[in-house]
């Protein structure tokens, strides 16, 4: 991974949708008898597929758990909810990984390597250089923000070369579609929503452009996790992960049904992800590959001022629990 990575700051906008995935045995969340876990997700294939599979395949019940799931606009606000005690587990993209690195959460499982982030521009703006001095909307603290900073740095530019406009993702969709902003750092499938209204928009940068870049997204928990509960939850995620790897088409169908989205759009979104088996992720945990991915991200965040120093990933990646769960 290049020394250039991504800047992030915490967004305060939360989606107001709460979608129950399974009937709950009590209202205590993860703080009661441990049978119910409150899980956050993002409304896309990466953020929701394992939860959809776990419910459809009865994996929560098999583990003696129920899940209450709630949708959020991005990862940083899920980490806020974890800190406030409103969630037990959540999902973040690579752009929010500075928050676990700063002690705000623990990473309990890597999900996929994601390449859904883009810098988009209005028709006729065909390069990053053309965005100089123009308004660019970004959800701060997310992988969209990350993609913008990566792309600017690769072009020898900085965030000061554009007029950065912090916005939540839904506002970016409407602002770009109405021409109020010239560009945006955002991700699929939300870009598809914009393309429906601005079909000739330009993609001036993509995380696919960074050949030596690794963009892990992950599941997180609040700091000081309950090892027994977390191992159970990670075990569910691992079983769902391997089912997804072996049944990618059905995973798209199940995710589309959960999210009430067009199946073809979810399929296109899924194509932006690199799936990994649990066996591979365990091996990459044990040989230090996952720590390398997280360490590279942390070094980037130091460069952008999000972290004072890059901590040892062992301080916030619970690889011990991930490996333990796989052995059960």
Would you kindly provide a written description of the structure presented here, covering whatever features stand out?
It is a single chain. It contains 13 helices and twelve strands. Strand 7 (135-138), helix 5 (143-154) and strand 8 form a beta-alpha-beta unit. Helix 1 (45-56) crosses helix 8. The protein is an alpha/beta fold and 328 residues long. The strands form three sheets. The protein has a five-stranded mixed sheet. It has two domains: 18-114 and 215-326, Periplasmic binding protein-like II (D-Maltodextrin-Binding Protein, domain 2, 3-Layer(aba) Sandwich); 117-209, D-Maltodextrin-Binding Protein, domain 2 (3-Layer(aba) Sandwich), CATH 3.40.190.
What is shown here, in short?
The chain is an alpha/beta fold. It has helices at 45-56, 59-62, 75-84, 98-101, 143-154, 169-177, 190-195, 227-246, 248-259, 263-270, 278-286, 289-303, 319-326; strands at 18-20, 36-42, 66-72, 89-92, 106-114, 117-121, 135-138, 163-166, 183-187, 202-206, 216-221, 273-274. The protein has 2 domains: 18-114 and 215-326, 3-Layer(aba) Sandwich (D-Maltodextrin-Binding Protein, domain 2); 117-209, 3-Layer(aba) Sandwich (D-Maltodextrin-Binding Protein, domain 2).
């Amino acid at each position: 991974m290049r020394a250039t990575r991504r800047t992030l700051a915490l967004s305060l906008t939360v989606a107001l949708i709460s979608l129950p995935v399974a009937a709950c045995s009590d209202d205590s969340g993860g703080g009661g008898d441990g049978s119910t876990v409150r899980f956050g997700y993002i409304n896309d294939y990466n953020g929701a597929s394992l939860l959809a599979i776990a419910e459809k395949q009865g994996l929560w019940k098999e583990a003696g758990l129920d899940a209450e799931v709630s949708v959020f606009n991005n990862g940083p606000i899920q980490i806020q909810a974890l800190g406030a005690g409103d969630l037990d587990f959540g999902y973040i993209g690579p752009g929010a990984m500075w928050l676990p690195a700063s002690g705000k959460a623990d990473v309990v499982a890597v999900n996929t390597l994601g390449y859904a982030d883009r810098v988009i521009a209005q028709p006729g703006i065909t390069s990053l250089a053309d965005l100089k001095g123009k308004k660019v909307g970004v959800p701060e603290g997310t992988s969209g923000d990350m993609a913008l900073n990566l792309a600017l740095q690769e072009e020898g530019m900085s965030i000061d070369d554009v007029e950065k406009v912090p916005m939540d993702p839904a506002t970016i969709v409407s602002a770009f579609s109405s021409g109020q902003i010239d560009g945006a750092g955002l991700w699929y499938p939300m870009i598809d929503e914009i393309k429906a209204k601005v079909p000739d928009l330009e993609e001036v940068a993509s995380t696919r452009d960074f050949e030596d870049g690794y963009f892990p997204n992950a599941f997180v928990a609040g700091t000081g996790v309950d090892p027994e509960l977390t191992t159970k939850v990670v075990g569910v995620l691992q079983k769902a992960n391997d089912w997804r790897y072996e049944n990618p088409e059905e995973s798209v169908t199940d995710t589309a049904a959960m999210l009430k989205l067009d199946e073809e759009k979810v399929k296109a979104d899924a194509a932006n992800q690199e799936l990994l088996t649990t066996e591979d992720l365990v091996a990459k945990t044990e040989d230090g590959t996952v720590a390398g991915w997280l360490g590279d991200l942390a070094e980037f965040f130091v460069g952008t001022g999000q972290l004072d120093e890059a901590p040892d990933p062992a301080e916030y990646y619970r690889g011990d629990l991930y490996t333990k769960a796989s052995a059960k």
